[in-house]
Design brief:
The chain is about 65% helix and about 5% strand. It has about 325 residues and is mainly alpha-helical. β1 and β2 form a beta hairpin. α5 runs antiparallel to α6, α8 runs parallel beside α10 and α10 crosses α11. The two termini are about 40 Å apart.
Length: about 325
């Protein structure tokens, strides 16, 4: 809502977020409460993942819902599946229409961030997520999608310079990464220390290309914490990444014994997919510098870990 308000109110966009030529056509890049449109776009990608799962589940099970009740015990707060209930005709359509409206609102908000990295990641994610359900038609739908995006003026303005390799922000990041690599070679194994980037990078920067962070999550982790910490970071999320693969299959999440167990498994895989989106976005942005979005990430990690508990698995 705040992002749409920024578009309507024509909130000024800082000069560094757009080139001079782009500012003639794009007046506002929505950033909501996150202070940066790229970070806001990452938040929207997480919401897009959740809504996509709900849409697919409503398609797979259009007439059913799961009702839960709490066991009447002062020491037991677990939810147990009670029965499978049917949506009424109007209720089912209202629910589906609400999901579609939210899905479209998120897509529109994502467009107005004008974040190219989020656009790329969103297209890849939606293609993998919905593609198996369209069968052989998925390539035709993908082509139509690109043709539609190509008609949008904002998409043309933002993607044109990038695809032609004439985009100033692209080469700005490349030069930052060159400076970061120079610093990494001097702090290869053990790093320069957590939070030291603003003090270490100026000694290695290329020309006058200054920056407070690496604009790439993994390079920053490597520089500040060393190679071994980078490997440990990937190892920490290995199981989450592997567990998210079933969500991209046409068969979806396999049914478990009991509705509650199936719901927990679905939630676990959905959370893993969101975490995978965050990790993928780390290739183009150091989103950990934003405390709000960093908090969201570790919150999702905590939810995923809690969904792996033995007590829940036995339920």
């Amino acid at each position: 809502i705040i992002g749409f308000w920024q578009q309507i109110s024509q909130v000024p966009t800082p000069a560094g977020w757009l080139s001079n030529a782009q500012m003639n056509w794009i007046k506002v890049r929505s950033y909501s409460v996150f202070g940066n449109p790229n970070i806001f776009a990452l938040y929207l990608l997480g919401i897009l993942s959740i809504i996509s799962d709900l849409l697919i589940e409503s398609y797979r099970y259009p007439k059913t819902a799961i009702c839960f009740w709490r066991k009447q015990s002062s020491s037991d707060f677990f939810l147990y599946p009670m029965k499978k209930s049917r949506f009424s005709g109007y209720g089912r359509w209202i629910y589906s229409a609400s999901l579609i409206l939210i899905f479209l609102a998120v897509l529109i908000a994502l467009y107005f961030t004008y974040s190219r990295g989020a656009w790329f990641l969103g297209i890849i994610f939606l293609g993998l997520r919905f593609g198996p359900y369209f069968g052989q038609r998925r390539w035709m739908i993908l082509g139509i999608t690109f043709l539609f995006l190509g008609t949008l003026r904002g998409f043309q303005i933002r993607m044109g310079p990038l695809l032609s390799l004439t985009d100033s922000s692209l080469w700005y990041r490349v030069r930052i990464w060159q400076g970061v690599f120079r610093a990494i070679f001097d702090h290869l194994l053990w790093g320069s220390g957590p939070g030291s980037f603003p003090w270490i990078y100026p000694w290695y920067q290329i020309g006058t290309v200054a920056s407070l962070h690496a604009h790439q999550l993994y390079l920053q982790i490597w520089l500040e914490n060393g190679f071994f910490s980078l490997i440990a970071f990937f190892g920490l999320f290995r199981k989450m990444i592997v567990s998210s693969w079933p969500i991209f299959g046409c068969k979806g999440v396999p049914a478990q014994k009991g509705y509650f167990a199936t719901t927990i498994l679905q939630t676990s895989i959905s959370l893993a997919a969101i975490i995978l989106l965050y990790l993928g976005y780390g290739l183009a942005e150091t989103w950990t510098q934003n405390q709000l979005i960093g908090g969201y990430f570790w919150f999702f990690c905590g939810l995923w870990i809690s969904s792996q508990g033995k007590e829940i698995a036995r339920a």
